[in-house]
Write a structure and sequence with these properties.
five-stranded mixed β-sheet, 211 residues, 18% strand, four-stranded parallel β-sheet, alpha/beta
Amino acid sequence: KGLASISGTERLTTVRLADPALVERVAREWNDRGMTVVAEPTPRDAPYVLLWCPQAPGRTVVYRGAIAALRQLGVGLPKRALADVAAARLEPVARISNFPRASEGTLQAVLSSLAQSGIRLVICTGTEVLGYQGQHKEAAQAFESSGVFYGSVEFGKQKGDDRLAAALKGHLVRVHSISEGEMGTMSEGEAIERFTRAARERNIRFCYVRL
């Protein structure tokens, strides 16, 4: 909270980050996803997004594109959060969206970066899985070569899940999850019983828990 703020218009949006390390992380993630960097922005480059930190004004990065599209990209995983998950003896899971410029190269870059961070499982967020809209074979190849597993959520109904699962030839992890809304109405015992039944009766191999 308080690490980033957004201001401006759709024509020129400024993303102000709290520290230089965060600028480096966000820039790396956006570059992996194929965003175009503009060296010297001009009116014809609009709309564009300015990424900067007051403590490191010389490291300002400008991207061509509207902020609405960039919101889907994600900003990477903070090391502190990963350490907290490991300390709690839980398995960290990456939640990433199907971003606009998904291709063989960008999918490979994103999943390889996650693997280097110690991530073993990706559960897609939103209504689409990675590679939806014709890139399911490229997504499958990226999962296989990076060593990161795709988590297929039962009853999830995400677009492209069936094609990605087929391209992976079943080399995936079946996931059960309780939605945030449902979790708020359940007792701890009820939630545990539901996860237990999923594993025992339907061979679910990963339980995604919203604390």
